């Protein structure tokens, strides 16, 4: 494959003999050979330009990562999960937030994470932001400043995050909703079984509708089959006639519920037009974990059954080097590789790549990734000619083009964060 140093530093050029998933060209089938022309930072129809033979290298649009937690990222060295459990993560993050989440701490860690994502080839991110007062008044202005600073490199969206039992829909969380609206964000909520769930959801949607906000949920991130809040969310959307985009992440408990109940829920989700995002790496790390016992399931939701019903399904990174997930680097190619293995995306429909590109863009309203003429020449080029080669290695030598030019893919050194890791 052509080395990035040989790609033109200026002027138009044509990438010939490349491999592209047919679905990204609006075609059926698997992988096809193709060519792409780059001119003025965008893809072009022109053919009369210097041509590079790419030797069959796979080319994809830059990725969309629709579910992350940039404000939590990279705190593991100072606040590791004591037992790897979900409750261990909740308690550890809560203590770290109170002790350490100053404006400087959050801004430094979020910027570090964005530099990683950019180097790996991500062009848009939605991050959840812990919004329990008074943290909301600290974190949202930092997010706003970073969104402006990163404009043109990574498009950023923010979604508030608080547990349903802590959200006072007529008091404190209404004030949080005002902060979210002020920063052009998305209203978020973590749902789990509580006695007044339907009333709380009605109040939550009223906050969103009064402010013209879209919504994003964490739902049923548990192996408890009695956790059926996804169904209640869908029913509430249909009851209220809510017209904004609704995204729901995790939905792990579907995999341990009776099939008849599951299919009824998924039919409701399809009718309500919900967007679902699966977080396979984090959920496999947390779910079904018990000391001295081998996990019995993978923790992921029912993505194949959802896709078969026309539900818009995406995959995303979720947490990075924090108590909810000890690893990761906001590398969507890693998410693609692991999701393929964990959720058996191979030997299935050949268009699953859209769950990392157009599906999350549609869910969030980001600019749609495209390989059509006129689209930004924001591309990821892999030293691989097929999926077997692409997913067998980390592709650490990938080329990332932004506006048609290869970027410096040097990753930031974790040592940059050492001064934040002593705690306070």
From TrEMBL:
Amidohydrolase domain: residues covered: 200-397
Matching CDD domains: Bact_CD
Gene3D superfamilies: Metal-dependent hydrolases, Urease, subunit C, domain 1
Domain of life: Bacteria
GO MF annotation list: cytosine deaminase activity; isoguanine deaminase activity; metal ion binding
GO BP terms, alphabetized: cytosine catabolic process
Keywords annotated in UniProt: Hydrolase, Metal-binding
InterPro entries: Amidohydro_3, Metal-dep_hydrolase_composite, Metal_Hydrolase, Metallo-hydrolase_Enzymes
Protein name: Cytosine deaminase
Natural source organism: Roseinatronobacter thiooxidans
């Amino acid at each position: 494959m052509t080395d990035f140093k040989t790609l033109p530093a200026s002027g138009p050029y044509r990438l010939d003999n490349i491999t592209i998933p047919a679905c990204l060209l609006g075609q059926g089938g698997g992988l096809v050979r193709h060519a792409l022309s780059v001119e003025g930072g965008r893809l072009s129809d022109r053919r009369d330009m210097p041509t590079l033979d790419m030797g069959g290298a796979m080319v994809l649009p830059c990725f969309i990562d629709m579910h992350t937690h940039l404000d939590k990222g990279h705190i593991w060295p100072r606040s590791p999960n004591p037992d790897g459990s979900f409750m261990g993560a909740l308690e550890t993050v809560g203590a770290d937030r109170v002790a350490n989440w100053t404006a400087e701490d959050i801004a430094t860690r979020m910027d570090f994470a964005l530099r990683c994502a950019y180097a790996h080839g991500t062009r848009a991110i939605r991050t959840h932001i812990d919004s329990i007062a008074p943290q909301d008044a600290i974190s949202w202005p930092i997010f706003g400043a970073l969104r402006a600073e990163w404009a043109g490199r990574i498009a950023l969206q923010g979604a508030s995050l608080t547990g349903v039992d802590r959200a006072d829909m007529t008091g404190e969380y209404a004030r949080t909703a005002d902060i979210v609206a002020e920063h052009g964000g998305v209203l978020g909520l973590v749902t789990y079984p509580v006695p007044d769930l339907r009333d709380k959801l009605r109040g939550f949607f009223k906050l969103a509708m009064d402010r013209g906000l879209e919504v994003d949920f964490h739902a049923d991130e548990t192996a408890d089959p009695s956790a059926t809040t996804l169904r209640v969310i869908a029913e509430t959307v249909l009851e209220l006639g809510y017209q904004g985009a609704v995204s729901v992440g995790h939905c792990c408990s579907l995999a341990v519920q009776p099939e008849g109940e599951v299919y009824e829920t998924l039919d409701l989700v399809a009718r309500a037009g919900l967007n679902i995002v699966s977080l396979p790496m984090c959920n496999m790390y947390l779910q079904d974990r018990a000391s001295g016992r081998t996990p019995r399931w993978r923790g992921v939701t029912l993505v194949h059954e959802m896709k078969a019903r026309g539900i818009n399904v995406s995959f995303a990174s979720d947490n990075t080097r924090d108590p909810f997930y000890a690893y990761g680097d906001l590398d969507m190619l890693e998410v693609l590789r692991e999701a393929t293995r964990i959720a058996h995306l191979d030997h299935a429909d050949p268009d699953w790549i859209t769950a990392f590109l157009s599906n999350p863009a549609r869910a969030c309203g980001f600019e749609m990734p495209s390989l059509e003429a006129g689209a930004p020449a924001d591309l990821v080029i892999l030293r691989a000619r097929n999926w077997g080669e692409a997913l067998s290695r980390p592709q650490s030598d990938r080329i990332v083009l932004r506006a048609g030019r290869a970027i410096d893919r040097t990753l930031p050194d974790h040592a940059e964060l050492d001064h934040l890791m002593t705690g306070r």
